[in-house]
Design brief:
It is a single chain. By secondary structure, the chain is α/β, with parallel strands linked by helices. It folds into two domains: 179 residues, Glutaredoxin; 110 residues, Glutaredoxin. The strands form four sheets. It has a five-stranded mixed beta sheet, with helices on both faces. Strands 10-12-11-14-15 form a five-stranded mixed beta sheet, with helices on both faces. Strands 2-1-7 form a three-stranded antiparallel beta sheet, with no helix packed on it. Helix 3 packs parallel to helix 5 and helix 5 packs across helix 7. The longest helix is centred in the middle third of the chain and has 16 residues. 39% of the residues are buried.
Length: 302
Amino acid sequence: MASTAQLLGHLAGSTATASLSFTPVSGGGSSKVRFLPATAQRRRVVARPRAAVSGAEKEKAKPAESGSKEDERVVQVHSAEEFDSALQKAKNRLVVVEFAASHSVNSKRIYPCMVDLSRTCGDVDFLLVMGDESEATRELCQREGITQVPHFSFYKGTEKVHEEEGIGPDQLAGDVLYYGDNHAGVVQLHNRADVEALMAENSGEDGKLLVLDVGLKHCGPCVKVYPTVVKLSRSMADTAVFARMNGDENDACMQFLKDMEVVEVPTFLFIRDKKIVGRYVGSGKGELIGEILRYQGVRVTY
């Protein structure tokens, strides 16, 4: 997954979406895609912890022309039956599905990023659905509630865990990193007992600073900052331990958030020798790094 994180530094994004209503073009049997304004990014508002507010591409081959060796890990499905079978076969692996259209410029622009991610993320499955390919794919899009393309849906255990419209390569790569969930450098915690065990492992004179990333599954700022968390877990492995917990994973996690008085996410708890010595609320990369260094004893000026 390291390569996925590296993609974030140099891929540029596109945010337009296209309608899936196909209008005949006069004088021919082809179809065109009607473009609509970009969909505003949705931010989860909850009575429980809420999202915290932090302080030129070349056109490549369209998805419809896929099939070369470089994109063989992106599997195109042609019906609801094939789609359901692919989700079941993946079991608990993350499945990323792009719903596209053959005449959508933005589908063509984002597809190379899908191909790049498929080559670097061996623990993630990638599917492609061309909404205008046939009546079967149109019915599949209708079943999944797809009205604009490109549309990305993320599944685990056949359950949809996230979806996005009108995103660029940066956000797509970040979403895959966040929901992929398989990063050895960031310990996944599922209840208070997990937290206490990790604190015990890192207590005493030789104990490291524990940085606990507390978020929600559906939280834009949490997704935004997570690639930074993964990078820091590697670069600071000698001095800090990184972990994360999604408050909406289960009741035990939500109770932990309440006990820790977490009201906005992402919240980063800094723990030293079993004691919470500080916290940072937000998704600012520079601010997060500065806070970590400060609690490691490095003098930081803003």
